[in-house]
């Protein structure tokens, strides 16, 4: 027993040493990145995009290793998130280029005003510093996170899941080589090489190096990071997203939006998990919608009123209303009106993304104000709650918190502000 404890102690000590080495390098790189010229940062992003496209075959081969290892170990939703395709690789590169084309927020001075004393006071946007990102399955997060951190003048330490080890390292090699070619520090983006879970615990304790941690993955990961991190966390726990179809909705639009919100992609946090339908249009909506969803292989778990229209619907349990299925299952509830829908969203939702389908502008405006979610939509699919679709180029995550950043976190969410004062020999 004592020999085993000694081995574990040595292993943990080695991991701690390794992680602190990454932290020191990241802190040094962050100082350089904070003053990096926007043109140099953009050149690095374009170079990374080109490197990713050129390495497409290498990335697909690395990803194939991860997929082979994951089959039989991961469920279908995780495998779907893990898979790289030529289109997804092209999207990673396009995300890099789109971020490069965005205005650089770093150094922007706003609200510069003269005070009665004669000084000018304003606020300058500055990088957060060193950002730690802990994520599961999706290897494209490696590229998205690198792009946003680089453009916003931050350094990043990226710790992907063991299931995507080969993919993440291959993408990380593209990033590292392109950074060096552009004249930026290699340590501006570091992919953690070990998949030992002790590295995550050590990372969360590195408050002398990290300024913020962003977990991207399942609820268990996010809860663990939130409970154990010594640094601020940008996060969301669940994506229990709703579409409410109002009794003044265009029913053709409503069906199309609901189908897209559920079936366009199952394993994402912005996929609709609960459909709410006003009782005045329940039959007109549920009959065509049920047929389409049935053809798509979606299981409907409905309330009693829903099952009167859709005889093959499974009786919904109370637990279904707060469930993030991440698969072809949809909870459906008929509600009396918009007020009841809003109450349901507040009771069971996760404050991620919720939509109303209505042609009544007064109701739409009320829904926008009353629903307390990071993204609230009118006549649009919840699947639009995405950094790329919002014009952010990419996102480092979606925050359902209210402090610092909320919704898809892009460049502005990865910066803070400091006050600047301009004087000319002024004394108080």
Q: How does the SSE layout of this entry go?
A:
Elements: H1 2-34, H2 38-54, H3 56-70, H4 76-82, H5 86-100, E1 109-114, E2 120-127, E3 130-135, H6 140-151, E4 155-159, H7 165-182, E5 189-191, H8 198-204, E6 212-216, H9 219-228, E7 241-245, H10 251-263, E8 272-278, H11 282-295, E9 299-302, H12 304-309, E10 314-315, E11 329-335, H13 338-348, E12 353-357, H14 361-370, E13 375-378, E14 398-399, E15 407-408, E16 415-422
Parallel strand pairs: 3-4, 3-6, 4-5, 7-8, 7-12, 8-11, 9-10, 9-11, 12-13
Antiparallel strand pairs: 1-2, 2-16, 14-15
Distance between the termini: 68 Å
Rounded Rg: 24 Å
**Sheet with the most strands?**
7 strands, parallel
Strand content: 15-25%
């Amino acid at each position: 027993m004592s020999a085993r404890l000694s081995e574990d102690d040595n292993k943990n000590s080695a991991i701690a040493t390794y992680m602190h080495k990454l932290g020191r390098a990241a802190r040094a790189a962050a100082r350089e990145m904070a003053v990096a010229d926007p043109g140099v940062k953009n050149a690095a992003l374009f170079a990374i995009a080109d490197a990713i496209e050129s390495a497409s075959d290498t990335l697909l081969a690395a990803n194939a290793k991860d997929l082979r290892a994951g089959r039989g170990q991961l469920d279908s939703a995780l495998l779907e998130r893990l898979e790289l395709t030529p289109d997804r690789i092209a999207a990673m590169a396009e995300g890099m280029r789109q971020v490069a084309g965005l205005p650089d927020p770093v150094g922007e001075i706003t609200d510069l005003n003269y005070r009665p004393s004669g000084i000018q006071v304003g606020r300058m946007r500055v990088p957060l510093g060193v950002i730690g990102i802990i994520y599961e399955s999706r290897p494209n997060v490696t590229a998205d996170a690198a792009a946003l951190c680089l453009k916003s003048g931050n350094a990043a330490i990226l710790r992907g899941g063991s299931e995507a080890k080969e993919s993440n390292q291959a993408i990380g090699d593209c990033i590292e080589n392109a950074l060096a070619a552009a004249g930026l520090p290699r340590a501006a983006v570091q992919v953690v090489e070990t998949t030992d879970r002790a590295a995550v615990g050590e990372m969360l304790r590195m408050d002398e190096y990290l300024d913020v941690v962003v977990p991207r993955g399942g609820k268990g990961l996010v809860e663990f990071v939130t409970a154990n991190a010594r640094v601020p966390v940008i996060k969301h726990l669940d994506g229990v997203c709703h579409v409410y179809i109002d009794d003044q909705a265009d029913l053709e639009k409503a069906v199309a939006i609901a189908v897209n919100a559920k079936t366009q992609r199952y394993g994402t946090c912005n996929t609709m998990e609960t459909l709410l339908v006003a009782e005045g249009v329940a039959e007109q909506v549920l009959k065509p919608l049920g047929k389409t969803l049935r053809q798509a292989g979606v299981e409907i778990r409905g309330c009693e009123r829903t099952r009167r229209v859709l005889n093959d619907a499974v009786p919904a349990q109370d637990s279904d209303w707060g469930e993030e299925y991440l698969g072809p299952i949809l909870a459906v509830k008929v509600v009396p009106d918009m007020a009841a829908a809003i109450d349901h969203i507040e009771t069971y939702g996760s404050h991620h993304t919720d939509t109303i389908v209505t042609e009544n502008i007064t109701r739409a405006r009320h829904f926008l104000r009353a629903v307390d979610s990071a993204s609230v939509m009118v006549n649009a699919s919840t699947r639009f709650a995405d950094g790329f679709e919002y014009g952010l180029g990419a996102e480092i995550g979606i925050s359902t918190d209210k402090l610092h950043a909320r919704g898809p976190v892009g460049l502005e969410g990865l910066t803070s502000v400091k006050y600047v004062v301009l004087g000319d020999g002024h004394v108080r």
